[in-house]
Specification:
145 residues; alpha+beta; Immunoglobulin-like; eight-stranded antiparallel β-sheet; 8 strands; 17% helix
């Protein structure tokens, strides 16, 4: 009879841990982008493979587009487009792109960059899945060992 209660306790603990892990994955991971323009604020959030980008302080009517790039905040390093939007009269733009983020893009070596026309206005490293990537300028991983 006592073994029955031990098994019940173990199963209940495993269910609680699994529930907590599932709940942790249901919250978006938010990160700030470093702005290159005065009065501009930019952030992004990740939930699964979905990426949401939010920009405040852009010029009204400005078309903003984002991309994921390897190692640098330049168009020549782009590996995947990440959507875009036009800023409203208050300078706010927000968009969501689904199915973009993979484990390979969350390695601490990829960045999310936002452009307005030919000008890069915000950029930051995409947080790694494991959270252990060391960071340097722009939040990029340091390659010096």
């Amino acid at each position: 009879m006592r073994d029955k209660w031990v098994i019940v306790a173990v199963v209940a603990t495993l269910l609680a841990v699994a529930g907590a892990a599932a709940h942790a994955d249901s919250r978006p991971q938010r990160f700030e982008l470093q702005a290159n323009a005065p009065r501009l604020g930019a952030s992004a959030s990740i939930l699964g493979s979905e990426l949401t980008v939010s920009i405040d302080g852009a010029a009204a009517g400005a078309h903003l587009e984002a991309a994921m790039a390897r190692l640098a905040c330049t168009r020549s390093s782009v590996v995947r487009a990440a959507g875009g939007a036009t800023a409203d009269a208050a300078g706010h733009a927000r968009w969501t792109a689904s199915g973009l983020l993979t484990h390979g893009l969350r390695d601490g070596r990829h960045v999310l960059a936002v452009w307005s026309g030919a000008r890069m206005v915000a950029c930051s490293a995409i947080p790694s899945d494991d959270g252990n990537a060391p960071s340097g300028r722009w939040g990029l991983r340091s390659f010096v060992d």
